[in-house]
Amino acid sequence: MSTIEKLHRARDFHTIRTESSPDNNCHWLYMHHDAQAGARPCFRPQLLEEMWGFTSSITHNNSQERQAGRLRHFVLASEGSAFNLGGDLELFGRLIRSRDREHLLQYARRCIDGVNILQTGLGGDVRTIALLQGDALGGGLEMALACHTIVAEEGVEMGLPEVLFGLFPGMGAYSFLCKRVSPQLAERLVLDGVMYKSEDMYRMGVVDILVGKGQGQAAVQDLIRQQQRAPHAHLAMNQVRNISQRVSYDELMDITEIWVDTALALGDKSLRMMERIVRAQERRSAAHAA
């Protein structure tokens, strides 16, 4: 990160690490700061709250806060062995078994709030970048898809495995994929449950920039420098995207309501599959922490 001077923000977090440039034009958020403690690299409620607490603190909500010609950047990355393995399946299982629709919907809504923040550029003056140096599955891939640009290193696994336990990715995957690939391919990616390499996703058009292992951060820095050379054009493109490419909040919420109802209809076989995946995640986390 030597080409972009960074300062640690003063606020303390448990699940994330954040860095900002001295002029506050560039912000990096690293998920899974607690990975060394063996925490699963998924969207646990505390992670979501800290992520959106940070993005809220750097969002300019009106034209008076935003400065003409000032382009900012937000990079979503990870300190864990994975970018993100998706939703909190342990929580899902408990809420489904207890028939707790209210809290399941509350969790889903919090995810929707996040992807909406990312796709709209934190108020419009920010270009959002997802840096994938580890696997991005399920909700982790959905969060990356909500960003303006996906930069991925070679060999990263990407996919939507929810169909394996009878569910589908309900926090924007289909809608965001349809902005990048054909609806037919988007539906196949949602329903086939296949894990693809980042090289395959790049060929399909899902990944924007593909680089070698260990080159992701440098590629993001290069991208930021390129875009800062034409800030007015990229600010205008944010406005254009929010007109022609934006997935409406109502669409996201309508789909996640279907997701909640589908989840609550899952049987014991599906829930046991979720539990097996959770145990696999725990073993992976323990190995990373060792």
Fold topology:
Elements: E1 7-8, E2 16-20, E3 26-31, H1 45-58, E4 72-78, H2 89-97, H3 101-119, E5 126-132, E6 136-137, H4 139-145, E7 149-153, E8 157-159, H5 173-177, H6 183-191, E9 195-197, H7 198-204, E10 209-211, H8 216-228, H9 231-244, H10 249-264, H11 268-289
Structure description:
The chain is of the alpha/beta class. The protein has one domain (7-289): 2-enoyl-CoA Hydratase, Chain A, domain 1. Helices cover 47% and strands 15% of the residues. It has helices at 45-58, 89-97, 101-119, 139-145, 173-177, 183-191, 198-204, 216-228, 231-244, 249-264, 268-289; strands spanning 7-8, 16-20, 26-31, 72-78, 126-132, 136-137, 149-153, 157-159, 195-197, 209-211. Helix 1 runs parallel beside helix 3 (101-119), helix 2 (89-97) packs antiparallel against helix 11 and helix 3 (101-119) runs antiparallel to helix 10 (249-264). The longest helix has 22 residues, at 268-289. It is globular.
Features:
single chain; 290 residues; alpha/beta; 2-enoyl-CoA Hydratase, Chain A, domain 1; seven-stranded mixed beta sheet; disordered N terminus
Number of domains: 1
Structural class: alpha/beta
CATH topology: 2-enoyl-CoA Hydratase, Chain A, domain 1
User: Can you tell me the residue ranges where pLDDT is under 50 for at least 5 consecutive residues?
Assistant: 1-5
Looking at the overall shape, the CATH architecture is Alpha-Beta Complex
Question: β content, as a range?
Answer: 5-15%
- Radius of gyration based on Cα positions: 18 Å
Care to count the β-strands?
10
Structural shape:
globular
In the CATH scheme, the class would be Alpha Beta
Q: Please outline the major beta sheet.
A: 7 strands, mixed
Share of residues in helices: 40-55%
- Widest β-sheet, arrangement of strands: 1-2-3-4-5-7-10
CATH-wise, what's the superfamily?
A: 2-enoyl-CoA Hydratase, Chain A, domain 1
Mean pLDDT: 93
